[in-house]
Structure formats: structure tokens, C-alpha cells
Amino acid sequence: KKFKSEIEKHKMDLEKLKGKDPEFYKFLEEHDQELLGFKEDEEEEQDDAEKPTSRDKEEDSLTIAHVETWIIAVKEKENYAALRKLLGAFRSACHYGEGAEEELSERFVINSSNVFNKVMVFILSELDGIFKKMLHIHQEKKVATEDLKKIGRWKKLFPFVKSYLASALHVLNQMTDNRMISFTLRRLRPSIVVLGEFPALGRKFLKAAFHFWSTGEQSLSFVAFSCIRDMAMQLGTDCLESCSKTIYKQFVSSAKFVSATTLPRIQFLANCVVELYGVDIAVSYQCAFTFIKQLAIILRNALTVKSKDSFKKVYCWQYMASLELWVKVVSAYTGKDNLQPLAYPLAQILGGVSRLVPTARYFPLRMQCAVMLNRLAAATNTFIPVAPVLLDMLDFKEMKKPPTGGAGDSVDFHVVIKVGKPVVKTRAFQEECVNTVLEQLAEHLTQWCYSVAFPELALIPLAQLRRFVKETNVDRFRRLARQLIERNVEFVTKKREGVSFSPKDSEAVASFLKAEREAGTSPLFQYCNVLRERAKERRQALVETRLFSRFSSTSFYLLSCCSVEVKQKPDEDELARDDGKAKELFNKKWHQQKKRAGTEILTKKQQKEEEKEKGDQAGVEEDRVEDLLLSDDDEQDDEGVRSNDDEATQKPANKKRKRSSKQKQRTK
User: What are phi and psi of 488, to 5 degrees?
Assistant: First the structure.
């Protein structure tokens, strides 16, 4: 009774206020509906206290009218009360169907898919712009994270922004549809600048973005990388360093197995890493130096220990993909103030890897090392002795004798590290080896075909080629090698005879054959172009026969053929297309799926918590990539070692059993 009398007294006071000061009463109606609605709210609370199980769901259900009223109040009047209710509805939508514990602090019940769609699309599409409008930040103006604290309204909007980001990141981790994830990431991308004020949410967003980048398909991976790059650029050096380390580790974990289907995707991921490492060269140098040093340590252990396990850590796809990645990074940012000093240790590592196991079965791996060395030499304009790595392959007996294993299938050296023993004896493998050796040797010599010292530089390689022509019994190999021998030496020698400058005159040496270099008249340069076209045709033939033109791999192949260029901000036309598709994304079907998946999500959360506890107990050592293990290209070769190991482990077990039987007899 006392409670009801207080309500009646409050109602009478409000009636008197309405008569005495109608303007103030009208102000309360616009800005403080909760005060005027005290009666109804308190009566509902009293009814709930008396009958907690008889709550009327329809009265608390959210309708389109409610949402549209709040939207108008927020957009036109910047009403904080309406903004609070909209964010409460958004949180209810993001946690929809996830169990009773998620509804403890929620007041809104969403039973309509139209309401659900309206709330999700409006909040994700327009709330960032509304926040910036309330903070008086122009859409085109760049604002640093540290400048937000200087804005007067930021302190008042801080909890609203935090609620929005927390709910959006929560629902992002629950999504499974690629289009929905791409839409949400695009809409969260403009809000990245404020994530600096919420470190926990920033780490959560970064973790989700890296996951979608490394595992997503096509456009989703690109959108996720755009978010990663924006965070690295906008949130300071610490965030950039963290992103640089994490993206490399994610790349290594994604490169465990390489095939004709997965190669384009791995190349695309590598291009993303190259793009990110160009943001700040100083930070990139420190990270690259650390990871290249790890690769060198792994190679040194293999050279000193010389065990099968140590060789496996080098001769695996993760190690080779890491080397190729750093070659791309260093080649992209050369110069005295850039990453060129890292070219020398990289070249040393590549030379050691190519000769670690000198057998013909590892020719594909050695050829990949030679390709990387040529690329590094061309980018840094530095002489790297690639010829010994290539010409050693021609000295193997398998390359001098006619094939005894038949024609065989074509071998793609880009997606193979090791071949089987029968493959080495096939005609297809021999032809691919000799053709690739001559192509890469031509690439190496072409880099210096206009140099005044070319005759001396090519002396030893050409002498070894002549010896190969005499020793080989295969006529087609002789023809290919002779064509390379006869090129360019006479061309440079004749031009050099009329020269009057000395080797000390660096300017004159640099300008030697400048006109011929610009015109491309060198015989070796022209022959190298012919070899490139032949290699391209062979590569295209392999692509067509290995299911390389599947939709998923083709899309990544097109992306991997060019560098990754990320726009500083999303395109307006692209965002407009997203708005047009948004209604199709958060549709009734997804709304019902979330409703049915409540119990499944709870079990997944429990599993995640258990995995997190296990991970915390195990611990993770920072800045180390210890996941470099050999992919099972040839498990058959390891069976003998495994069987021996099994026998070695079984012997102690047998001894233990004998001892236990003797002990039993003694006790008896």
C-alpha cells in the first residue's frame, strides 16, 4: 500500500508540474521518458516481484515502430536515451539465442526477423557515422587515437562506443557465412581508430581478422587484411610490431602443405605480408632479422647434427615458404635505408639449403633455391653466385644417361620438394631438370650481359656447359646447351675492344653498352626471352592438367599474380553495394538458425574455455616459430626409420616384462 501511495503522489506532482510549467514538462517528455513513465515501470516491477513467472512477453517484445522512433531520435536530435536503447537492442540481437545467462542485463525480446534485421543493419551501417557526428569529427578527417580524449563529448560517449564494439565483435565470432563476415568487417573498419582506447577489444578484433585472413575465401581474406593493415597503421608502433609478427606466424601455419590447388592462396597470403612489411621499414627490419635468424639457426643445426629429424625441419614446405616470403619482402624494399642488408644472410641460407642433401630426388627444392637467388640478385643489383648451384645438377649421373624409366608424367617443380626414385629415371623429369637449369642459368647471366666483365664472369659456367655437352649422351640436351654457350661472349668482347677507359673509371663502366641495354639488343637477353616464353607455355600446360583452374584456386591465382594494394578507406560505392545486400544477409533464416543454435553455442563456448585454459597452462614462447616440420611428401621412405625406432622402443618394453615376471616368481 505504501508503494502504491508513493506512485499516486508522484503522479499528482507530475500533473501539477504540467499545469505550472508546461514547457519544462514538454522538455521532460523529449529527454527523460523514464521519469514520466515512473508509474508504469514501478507497477510492472511490483507485478514481477509478486508473480515472476507471469511476465507478459508481448509487452516487452521489440517492434519496428520502437526501433524507427529511436533511430529518428538518434539521427535528428542526437538523443542519448534513444541511443542507449538502440545499443541495448543491438546487444540483444547479437546475443540472441545464447542461453538464459545472456539475458540477465537485457530488457528487449526480439521475436521478429524484420526487427532483428533492422537493428543489425542500422547499427553496423550507420552508427559509426553517428558517433563521429556527435563527436564533431568530419568523415574525411583523419583522427589519431590519442586525440579522442581531447574531444569534450568523448567521455560521455565512451560507454556507448564500447558497448557497440563489444557486441559487434561478439556476433562477428558467431558468424559462419562469408558474406556476413565481410559486411561486418567492412563496417567495423572505419571504427578501427577508436579501438586504441579499448586494448582488450582491439586484441579480440585483431585475432578475428587474422583468423579470417588466413582461413577465409577470396574477398573475405582481402577484407580481413585491409582491417589488419589499418590497425597496424593507425594504432601505433606497438600494434604494428604485433601485427608484423602475428601475420608471419599465421602465414607459416598456413603453408604446411603446398599443392597445385593451394599454391595460389599461399602466394596471395605472401603478397599480403609483403604489403604489411612496407608500412614501417624500421619495424619490419627488426622483425625480419629475427625470423631470418631463426631460419639460419635451423639450418645450422641440420648441418652440425646431420640427423633425419634435423633435415626434416629444413626440407619442408613451411621452411621453403618462409624463405620465399623473405626473398619477396627484401626484393620489394631494397636500398641502403631499406631491407637490402638482409639479402646477404638470405643468400647464404639459400646456398646452404640447396646443398644440404645432394641427391637428384631433391632437384625441385634446389631449383626453387636457384629461382629465389636469381630474384634476390636482380632486385638488389648484386652479383650472387647462382651458377654453381645450377651446374652441379648437370654433373649428376642421372642427367647424363638416357632415361630408363619410360616417358613418365610431367613434374611441376613449383609444387614439389622431393620426387620418388622411379621418377628420377623418367624422360619427363630429366627434360624438366635440364630445361629449368638452362633457363635459370640464362636468367643469371642475363643480369650481367651488358657488363664489361661479362666474358670473365661467364668463363667458368660456359666451360662447365661445354663439358656437359661432351659427356651427355642425350642429343636434345646438347642442342640446348650449345645455344646458350654461343651467345653474348663475342658480342661483349667486340664492344670492349674499342673502349678507352680503365676499370677504375666507375662512371664509364656503368655507362658501358647503355644504348644497347635500353634497346635490348644483347643476344643473350633475346635468347632469355625465348626461354621465358617456353617456360611459360610449359607452366600453362601443367596448370591446365592439374585442376589448377578450379573456381576457388583461380580467384586466388589472379590475386597472387599482382601485388596487394589496399585502399586507405573503403570505397563509397562498395559500401553502398553492401547496404543493398545487407537485408539479404541478416535474414529470417539466419535469425531462426541462431534461435535453434543456442545450446550448440553454449557447448562451443565451454570447449573454447577449456582449450584456452589448456593453452594458458602450456604457455607460448613469444617471437618463435617452432612449427616448421616436414610435410609428408614421401612417407614411404620414413617407414624403415620408423620400424627401426619401433623395434628400439619395443626392446626395453620386453625387458621390463621379463623383469616383472621374474619378480613375480620371486614373490611366489
Answer: 75, -30
User: Containing domain of residue 147, as a range?
Assistant: 60-235+571-601
How many Å apart are CA 25 and CA 520, to the nearest integer? 86
Judge contact between 240 and 206, C-beta under 8 A. no
Q: What are phi and psi of 413, to 5 degrees?
A: -70, -15
SS3 call for 109: strand
Helix ranges (DSSP H) in 381-513: 387-394, 421-424, 427-446, 454-457, 459-471, 475-485, 489-497, 506-510
Number of neighbours of residue 373 by Cβ within 10 angstroms: 24
Closest CA relative to residue 265, chosen from 544, 551, 532: 551
User: 543: number of CA atoms within 13 Å, CB side?
Assistant: 13
- Find out whether 481 and 438 touch, Cβ atoms under 8 Å: yes
Q: Residue 125 corresponds to which cell in the numbers above?
A: 551501417
| Cβ-based burial of 388 (10 A; exposed 0-12, middle 13-18, buried ≥19) | middle
The C-alpha angle 452, 457, 458, rounded to 5 degrees, equals: 110
Helices 551-560, 263-276: axis angle to 10 degrees equals 30
The residue among 408, 432, 431 whose CA lies nearest residue 420 is 408
Residue 208 covered by a domain: yes
Is 627 inside any structural domain? no
CA distances from 317 to 19, 142, 597, 625 (A): 82, 42, 39, 14
Task: Give the amino acid at 245.
Answer: K
Rounded mean pLDDT of the chain?
A: 77
506-543 per-position pLDDT tens digit: 777 777 878 888 888 888 888 888 888 888 888 887 77
Q: What's the one-letter identity of residue 179? A: R
What CA–CA distance (Å, rounded) separates 444 from 451?
Answer: 13
Phi/psi at 61 (5° precision): -70, 140
Nearest to 455 by CA among 490, 506, 500: 490
- For 85-123, write each residue's pLDDT tens digit: 999 999 988 887 775 444 444 567 888 888 888 999 999
The total number of residues written for the chain in this structure: 668
Domain count, the chain: 2
Beta-bridged to residue 598, according to DSSP, are: none
**Does residue 200 share a domain with residue 85?**
yes
C-alpha radius of gyration, the chain, whole number: 34
153 plus 228 within the same structural domain: yes
Query: Are 247 and 325 a contacting pair, CB within 8 Å?
Result: no
The reply to whether 78 falls in a domain is yes
The C-alpha cell that represents 527 in the structure block? 635468347
- Domain match, 31 and 119 both: no
- Is the Cβ–Cβ distance between 230 and 567 less than 8 Å? no
Class of residue 325 by CB neighbours under 10 A (exposed 0-12, middle 13-18, buried 19+): buried
Ranges of H-type helices in 333-426: 343-354, 363-380, 387-394, 421-424
In terms of domains, do 12 and 149 share one?
Answer: no
Rounded percentage of the chain residues whose pLDDT exceeds 90: 32
> Is the domain of 94 the same as that of 128?
yes
How many of the other CB atoms lie within 10 Å of CB of 458? 25
Contacts of 246 (CB under 8 A, 6+ apart): 206, 210
**How are the residues of the chain apportioned to helix, strand and coil, as percentages rounded to the nearest 5?**
75, 0, 25
Band of residue 649 on the pLDDT scale cut at 50, 70, 90: very low
Q: Each residue of 600-644: pLDDT tens digit?
A: 544 555 555 555 555 544 443 444 554 454 333 344 444 333 334
Give the count of beta carbons closer than 10 Å to the beta carbon of residue 68.
12
pLDDT at 259: 85
Which residue carries 631449383 as its cell?
A: 367
Q: Is the pLDDT of residue 228 over 90?
A: yes
Considering the domain architecture, whether residues 22 and 148 belong to the same structural domain is answered as no
